[in-house]
Sequence to fold (721 residues):
Amino acid sequence: MHNKIINILRILFILILIFLGLSVIFRPAGTETNILKALFSQSENILVDLSTRFSARINVIVESDKPEKSEEISRTFYGKVDKEKMHTSNTDVHGIISDYEKYHNNLLSAKTYNLLKTKQYEKVEGNSLEALYNPIMQPIGSIEDDPFLLLTDFVMNLSENGGVSDFTPFEYNGKYYSLVMLTVDNDLALSPTILNDEIKVLVDTQEELSNNGVKIYLTGAPVHSYYASSRSMFEINLICILSTLFVIGLVFGYFKSLKPLIPIAISIGTGIFTGYALTSLIFKDIHILTFVFSTTLIGICVDYSLHYFVSDEGKDTVKEIFKSLTVSLLTTVSAFVVLLFANFILLKQIAVFTITGLTTVYGIVVLFYPLFCKNLTTEKRSIKHLNIPDRYGKIILCTVFVLALTGIFRTTFDDNIKNMYVPPKFLVHAEKLFGELVKSNGDLSIFVVKGDNLEDILQKEETIHDKLTGQGISFQSLSKYVPSEKRQRENQTLRRQLYKDKLDEYAQFLPEAQRYKLVSQNFGNGFLTAGNDFTFIKNNFLIDRNTSIVIAYNYQGGEINGIKPINFKKDISAQIRKCRLICLSLLLPIFGLLYLLLSKIYDFKSALKIISPSICAVIFVFGLLGLFKCPVNFFHILAVFLIIGFGLDYSVFRFAGAKKFEDAVLMSCLTSVFSFALLACAGFKLVSSLGTVLAIGLLSSYIFSVILIGKTGGQEVRRSS
Fold:
C-alpha cells in the first residue's frame, strides 16, 4: 500500500512537471529589469514610466582647446549615431523657427510675460539690448518687425541647459566644449540588452575620436547601466565558476566521488525551472531581482541532497531524515507564505518562486532519490567539527548581546537607491562636468497635468508656469514651446501695450513710419498651433491625448493648483522606505508563525530552541551594521529572509540529530558562506552588501546553532519525553 501511494505521487509529480513545461512553452514570461517596477504597484506606474522616460538620456561632452574642433568632433560623433534609436532635440527646435517667425507677435517667454504684466519695461529693454549683442546667438527674425527682440528672447529661453545647445561650442575654465544631448527611443529604453549594445557603439566611437587633444565624455543612466552590467556579468561569471569548483572540491573531498553532483544538479535545476514556470503562470513579467533572490534561496535545496547522501548507507535513508526534511520545508515555506500578503510585487514573486522551487526539490529527494540514488556514496571522510564548551558559549552569547545592543541603538537607514550603486570615478567626473556645464544638479520634479483637450491642458500648464517663474524655478513643458490660444491673446495685448508706451522712446533707430506701423498693427494673423512641425516636442511632453507633464528643475515646493509634483529622488526614496518598513513589519509575524508551527511539531521549549539561532543571527547582523555605522538598506532587509531560510535549516537538522547530521550541516554552511563571501567582493554595492550580510548571517546562524542546540540536538528532549 505504501509503495502504491509513492508510485502514484511519482506519476502525479511528473505530470505536474510536464504541465509546467508546456505552460512555459505556450506562455513564456517576460523579464523585467526596471528596479522601480519591483517596488511600485500598477496604480503607481506613472512614476515608473516617467522615471524610465527621463533616465533614457545620454549626453556626449566633447572637450578641446579650439571651439572649431569641439564642434567638428561633436557633429562627427552624432553622424555615427543611429538616428532611429537616438536623436537630439535642438535640431527639431531649429526646424520650427519659421513657424515662430510667422507668429512672433503671439510669443513671449515666461520671464518677459511676467515683466510686461508688471510693466517692468526697463528690464525688458535691458534684456533686449543683451540679446542684440549676444555673440552666441544671432537675432531671430527682423529687427524692424521685432525691435525688442522678443522672439529671440523666447527662443533663447526654450532651453534649460544653461543656455547650451547641441553642437554649439562654448568656453568653460579655459577649454571649449560642445554637447550632444541624445534622447533614447522609448522602445529601446525598455530593452536593456539591446540598449547596452548601442551604448557599446557609443563607447567605441568615444575611443575612436578621443585623440589629438580631444577628450570625449559620456554621461547618463544608460551609460552607467552599461558599465555596471558589463562589470557585474564578469564578476558573477567568475563567482559562479569559483563557487562551482568549491562545491565540486567539497563533494569529492568528502565522498571521494563526483557521482552525487549529478542528482544535486538535476534537483536544483528542476527546482529553478518549476519556480520560474509557476511564477510565469501567475505574473506577466518576472523581475530580475526575483531570479537573484529566489535562485539564491534555492541553495537551501543543496542541504536536502547533502543530508540524503551523508546519511545514505544502504538503508532506508529517507525514513531516517524524512521528518527533518519535512520540518525544514514547512518552516521555510511558512516564512515565505507571509510575503504573499506584502503590498508589492517583488516579495510576492520571490515567495511563489521560492516555495515552488523548494517543494520541487523536496519531492525529488523524497520520491526519486531512493529509486535512483541508492548506495551512490559508499565511502565518506570524517570531519572534525566545531565544539564550543558551555561556558565559552555563554561568553559568546553575552558578548553578542552587548555588541548587538550597542549597535542596534546606532542603526541608521538609507533609502536612497543611488547609494546602492557606486559608479567608477571617470563616470563621476563626467557627471560632475556635465552638471557644471549646463548649470543643473539634475533634481527634477514632474507635474502631471490632465485636461479635456489640448487647449485645456496648455492653459493648466501655464498656471503652473506663472507660479514657477515667480519663484525663479526653471521648467520645461509643451506650452513653453506652443502657448495656449488664450496666452497668445494675452501676449498680443502685452506686446501692443509695450509698443504703445515704450516703442518711440526705445526704437529711435527705426523710421517713424515703421514705429507707427508696429503700434497700430492688429496682430490678426491667427495662432500658433502644435502641428506636424511640433510632433517631436509633443512626444516629449504628452503622455496621452489628455495628459501632459511639466518638468521643474530644483523645485522644492508643494502642489500647485491642486497638482502634486512627482520628485524622483524623494518619491522613490519614500517608496523604498515604505517597502523596507513592510519587510521589517513582517519579521515578527514570520518568527511567530515559525514558532507556532515548530511548537505544534515538537513542543514549546523545543520550538524556542530551534528558532533561537536564527533570531540571534538576525539581531547580530543588525547590531554589527549599526556598530560599524553601515546604514541598513532595503536589500539588507531582504537578506534577512534568506538568513531565516538558511539558518533555520541548520537548526532543524541539528535538532533532529540524524546520523552524521553535523557533516551535512557543516557542508551546507560552507557552500553557502563561501558563495556569499565571494558576492561580498563584487563591485556593485547592492550585490556586495547583500553578500556581506548573508555571509555573516549564515556563519553566525551556524555558530549559534552549535552553541544553543549542540551536538545532541533534540535527543535529550526526546529521551526526557
Observations:
- The first strand starts at residue 30 and ends at 32.
- The chain has two domains: 2-27+225-380+387-419+570-720, 56-223+481-541.
- The mean pLDDT is 81.
